[in-house]
Each structure stands twice: as structure tokens, then as C-alpha cells.
Amino acid sequence: MSQQMDHFSTDPNADRLNRLKGEMSQVRSVMIDNIEKVLERSNRLELLVEKTRSMQGNSLRFKTQSHRYKNTMRWSNCKITVTLILLLS
Is the dihedral of CA 14, 17, 23, 25 positive or negative? Predict the structure, then answer.
């Protein structure tokens, strides 16, 4: 046991091994964080795509309804104009 303690206390290779283990642990934790960030980003992108599709559908509905309203108002104005012309004649 004392030989192993002396070996790990004095041998520089033992320190390198511990340093490499520590570096590998840091790299692993950074990679795990990066993977989690990529997954979160993917979820946010999916949400953004869904919102975009919804907005596109709403804009098409708005365009259709505004055209209908415009035509309704145009015919209403024509009817009023014709009625006024007939009343004034």
C-alpha cells in the first residue's frame, strides 16, 4: 500500500492520468450541455414553425374576408347610388 502511495505521490504519469480524467469529465459535461441546448433549440424551432403556419392560415382567412367585405360595401354603395338617382329623377 505504501508503494502505491509513493507511486501516485511521486510519479508524474499518475498526475497526467488524473488531469486527463478531469479534462475528459469537463469535455463530457460540455458535450452534454451542448446536446441539451441543441434539443431545446429544436423544440423552439418546431414551435416557431407551428406559429408560422398558424399565421399563414390566419392571413389567408383575413384576405378572403376582407375581399368579401370590400365587395359587400361596393354593392351597397352601388345600391345607394342607384336609389338616390331614382329618387332624384
Answer: negative
Asked if residue 65 lies in contact with residue 59, where contact means CB atoms within 8 angstroms, the answer is no
First to last CA, the chain: 122
Maximum C-alpha span of the chain: 123
pLDDT for the residue numbered 14: 62
DSSP state for residue 44 in the 8-state scheme:
H
Instruction: Note the pTM of the prediction, 2 decimals.
Output: 0.54
Beta carbons of 14 and 8 less than 8 angstroms apart? yes
- CA distances (Å), 86 to each of 14, 22, 89, in order? 107, 95, 5
- pLDDT given for residue 20 in this prediction: 85
